[in-house]
Amino acid sequence: MIIKDEAAASSLGSDLAKALRAGDVITLSGPLGVGKTTLARGILSGLGHKGDMPSPTFALVQPYDDLKPPVWHVDLYRLEDPSELEELGLDVRDTALIVEWPERAGAASWPQALRLSLEFAEAGARRLTAKVPPSWQGRWPPQ
To answer: For the chain, does the N or the C end have fewer beta carbons within 10 angstroms?
Structure first.
């Protein structure tokens, strides 16, 4: 899938929000500046969040417990070892997770996640690829 600009990434995020359920995990992979946080913010906006949406790069976890479903936006860029993941307490069943830099947590983390990967494409666009688990069948691609 080609995402032509930032507005298209936000729109895709908003569409994803309509399909998001408690317990879901969406992982976002790709190089710095490719638009992972833009897509995450689109999901949060699509769920109705109106306030600030700071990047969780330094806090690691930014909770949005007022949303339905509640969402934790997670950025693992600064994680130095997968063993540190346990300290973050991300094993939450009634909350959806949006996880940037999931590869820092190790390959076995979140086996049932919707795995989205972004890469730079021509003319400022982004190429998105998805690995879709059974739990997302019928919800991906978003309508």
So the answer is: C
